[in-house]
């Protein structure tokens, strides 16, 4: 990398708004750990933002997914449907519970799990009397809602719960269909969010579990706090975790949540500019955007029209040369050693192809117009 260029990050936090004020309040009140008012304030404001009755804060997005599976009492005999093209944290909690992931290939329209594959397999199992999956984990990748209507329909028919991994998609909304006007994370039995440093909302590290079910919300809080019963005698009624969010993290999270309308507008404006450049680009396609969705564009991910990995890698190298951090997306999970023997609904070749040919361009909410145009200049070089 040439050091004469200013580095442009892929997705970095923007610690604006009330972050400093709220952190000062933590210091002034001495509430920096698990006691203090910010966790509850953040939970209430978050539930209102996403449109669920309850939100339970926890330590990470991975912890949120783990707790979601515990809420379903998943056992080692259970299967969970999960996309193969996702970040590893979507699947690892399934392994924590020694349950069986069943990997679903991608659909090209949204890069998310292929609803047709889910529907076909569940109907096949119904006909042949085979055991149903314990849950379908719907992941909303890169800020684009998954095509969830057909999945909800088949899951309702057979009483299969849906867990949404909305870690990458806070604020993404359905604009048509059964869930028109609803945000990701408010549709399944349980929704999971991440506030890791590169996510649209960060609190250093953190997660959230959303649900409309009061019993589940209570148990989620219980599991994240070592399943400790009320009273001074340290009695616990099941195996829980120390998955608490600290008051300091929640203070940052609440301040960031207040900025979400602005953050979403910025992400969408950056995406619109990239879209305009890539519309007729001979090498790259614009980021996915289904007509029924209002994506958050957490990451702006383009795909090589042809040439696959070599084309993608050439563009990544051109960007790296001038200090621009762009990145491939994840390798499909069925290609990792610990999941190589797991069941798949198909060979996963669409996920492999998308993974090999896609790259994410810088889209921090604080990305300046000047920096954005520097990225675009490199991408435009492909035109000549
Ligand atoms: C970031 C992420 C997670 C996990 O979140 P952490 O807070 O890093 O534990 C889970 N699933 C997906 C799809 C993610 O991108």
Task: Explain this structure.
This protein has 384 residues and is an alpha/beta fold. The chain folds into two domains: 19-258, Aspartate Aminotransferase, domain 2, CATH 3.40.640.10; 260-383, Aspartate Aminotransferase, domain 1. 37% of the residues lie in helices and 14% in strands. The protein contains twelve helices and 14 strands. The chain has helices at residues 19-29, 38-50, 61-71, 92-96, 115-128, 149-158, 214-224, 247-258, 260-278, 308-321, 349-357, 369-381, and strands spanning 54-58, 79-83, 100-104, 135-139, 162-165, 173-174, 190-194, 207-211, 284-285, 293-294, 300-304, 327-328, 343-344, 358-361. Strands 1-8-7-5-4-2-3-13 form an eight-stranded mixed beta sheet, sandwiched between helices. Strands 9-11-14-12 form a four-stranded antiparallel beta sheet. Strands 6-10 form a two-stranded antiparallel ribbon. β4, α6 and β5 form a beta-alpha-beta unit. α2 runs parallel beside α8 (247-258), α3 crosses α7 (214-224) and α10 runs parallel beside α11. The protein is globular. The two termini are 23 Å apart. The model has no long low-confidence stretch (mean pLDDT 96). Bound molecules: pyridoxal-5'-phosphate. Residues 60-62, 86-87, 89-90, 139, 165, 167-168, 194, 196, 207 line the site of pyridoxal-5'-phosphate.
